[in-house]
């Protein structure tokens, strides 16, 4: 090697190592380095609390309290109320939740490593059950559970030092523990590392839970807790923030293009492990398992029942980003779906455009009429006075989410593949069998408006009788079909009946 070349190589090597060390000065990187070995709980005691006691700011989901901003250990007072209350779990479906702070998940608690936390748990006088709290961020037997057992109308108090930094689940641990958790008794407590977390533009609090109701998914009215389903681990609903649609449509999470977003995501369980994913985003960083190390460039992160993770991403292009449990039937058939709506200018060099909403979301898309029409029809049905118009309005939305992918939003079908429902002579010949076709599917040769189809429509037995009635009535009253009504009774009969026969004779 000639000296000049050798010199250039040296300069290059220097530049590279300088570049690297510049990157290491980034505060996030420092946090990560510190996490190489933070010393754990043995190094987490920064001495006695200093200054006046501070009252913790608690927030309801999806909000997160501001950073503590403290550089010394404090005494922090947390006051949390247990409230048993009836709330909607889905449109037109109610459930008696047991909550920390009146919400599912419970209030978000934020403290700093080394803080001394004086915890006050109050159980409302109108509660029917005793409750307690086990915080995974507590060092000590039961995580506070034994010291916090609280009868209705009573209050208890205990104190702990937050020795480990991280994102921790808290939950009720009163017997039967599974039932208390299944009813919504969980939340998150963030113990910030001493140097704090890197600054971001938005922080949100999302928590997954699985729910077990006496009726099926979308059965309307009040639903009781189903212990047998919980033991079998067969949830009726899998939800973010305790309600189907808690974070969609007008309640979607918000961000702007060019922002850095951090999610604090917990999983209350009681049973399922979440394969947490955001459709259309890649997590720049995931503090997996809620600990102090991060992984970069992650598509899907596992969040165990009773566990949590923090993740960060940067938004480049506008649109709706869909938070799901990628065990995907949970997202589209049990409710585990939320939306982050990002506004701002397009960048066609990053993404050419065309919204994913329609493809993925059907009736859950942002901007479509709210699913309130479905609730209105359900309420009317319950009172025995549902009108054809109410059924049609609800059916239209359900059709969009259930049938339109194949038969198309305008009912025209796709030539040679999916027969038309519009002006269908097959429907006109026997309108009531639409209910049977929905529930049992259809296969074998059918002729619709002079064209033959020999394909398979899968059965959609997950639909409730009401949903079948709504969709059926909508189809009969749309696109030049003969009109009429499919009633709940028709649906019930169709469910019990044999599938429609096709082939010769039809
Ligand atoms: Cu409880």
From TrEMBL:
Keyword set includes Transcription:
no
Task: Provide the catalytic activity annotation.
Answer: nitric oxide + Fe(III)-[cytochrome c] + H2O = Fe(II)-[cytochrome c] + nitrite + 2 H(+)
Q: Name one GO molecular function term.
A: nitrite reductase (NO-forming) activity
Q: Residues that bind Cu cation, according to the entry?
A: 131, 136, 171-172, 180, 185, 326
Q: Where is the Cytochrome c domain?
A: 390-479
Could you tell me which residues belong to the region Disordered? Answer: 31-66, 484-506
Pfam families in UniProt? Cu-oxidase_3, Cytochrom_C
- State how the cofactor is bound: Binds 1 Cu(+) ion.
Q: Which family does it belong to?
A: Belongs to the multicopper oxidase family.
Protein name (Swiss-Prot/TrEMBL): Copper-containing nitrite reductase
- Gene name tied to this protein: nirK
């Amino acid at each position: 090697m000639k000296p000049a070349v050798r010199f250039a190589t040296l300069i290059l090597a220097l530049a590279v190592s300088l570049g690297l060390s510049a990157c290491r000065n980034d505060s996030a990187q420092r946090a990560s380095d510190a996490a190489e070995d933070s010393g754990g709980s043995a190094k987490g005691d920064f001495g006695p609390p200093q200054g006046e006691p501070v009252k913790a700011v608690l927030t309801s989901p999806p909000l997160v309290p501001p950073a503590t901003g403290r550089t010394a250990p404090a005494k922090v007072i947390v006051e949390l109320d247990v409230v048993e209350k009836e709330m909607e779990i889905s449109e037109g479906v109610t459930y008696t939740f047991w909550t920390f702070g009146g919400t599912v998940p419970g209030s978000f608690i934020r403290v700093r490593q080394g803080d001394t936390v004086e915890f006050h748990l109050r159980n409302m006088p109108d509660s029917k059950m005793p409750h307690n709290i086990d915080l995974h961020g507590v060092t000590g037997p039961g995580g506070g559970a034994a010291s916090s057992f609280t009868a209705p109308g009573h209050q208890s108090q205990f104190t702990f030092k937050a020795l480990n930094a991280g994102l921790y689940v808290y939950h009720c641990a009163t017997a039967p523990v599974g039932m208390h958790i299944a009813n919504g008794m969980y939340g998150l407590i963030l113990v910030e590392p001493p140097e704090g977390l890197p600054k971001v533009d938005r922080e949100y609090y999302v928590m997954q839970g699985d729910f077990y109701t006496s009726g099926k998914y979308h059965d309307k009215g009040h639903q009781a807790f189903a212990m047998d389903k919980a033991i079998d681990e067969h949830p009726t609903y899998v939800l973010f923030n305790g309600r189907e649609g808690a974070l969609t449509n007008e309640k979607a999470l918000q961000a702007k293009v060019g922002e850095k977003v951090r999610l604090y995501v917990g999983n209350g369980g009681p049973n399922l492990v979440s394969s947490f994913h955001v459709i259309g985003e890649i997590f720049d960083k995931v503090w997996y398992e809620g600990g102090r190390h991060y992984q970069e460039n992650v598509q899907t992160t596992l969040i165990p029942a009773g566990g949590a993770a923090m993740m960060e991403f940067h938004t480049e292009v506008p649109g709706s980003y869909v938070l799901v449990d990628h065990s995907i039937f949970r997202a589209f058939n049990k409710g585990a779906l939320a939306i982050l709506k990002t506004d701002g200018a397009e960048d066609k060099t990053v993404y050419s455009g065309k919204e994913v909403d329609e493809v993925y979301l059907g009736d859950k898309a942002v901007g479509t009429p709210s699913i309130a029409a479905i609730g209105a029809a359900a309420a009317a049905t319950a009172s025995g006075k549902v009108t054809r118009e109410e059924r049609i309005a609800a059916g239209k939305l359900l059709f969009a989410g259930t049938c339109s992918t194949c038969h198309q939003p305008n009912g025209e079908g796709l030539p040679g593949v999916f027969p038309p429902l519009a002006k269908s002579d097959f429907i006109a010949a026997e309108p009531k069998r639409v209910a049977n076709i929905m529930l049992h599917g259809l296969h074998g040769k059918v002729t619709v408006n002079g064209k033959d189809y020999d394909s398979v429509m899968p059965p959609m037995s997950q639909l409730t009788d009401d949903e079948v009635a709504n969709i059926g009535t909508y189809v009969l009253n749309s696109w030049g079909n003969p009109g009429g009504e499919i009633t709940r009774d028709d649906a019930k009969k169709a469910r019990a009946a044999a599938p429609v026969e096709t082939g010769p004779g039809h």
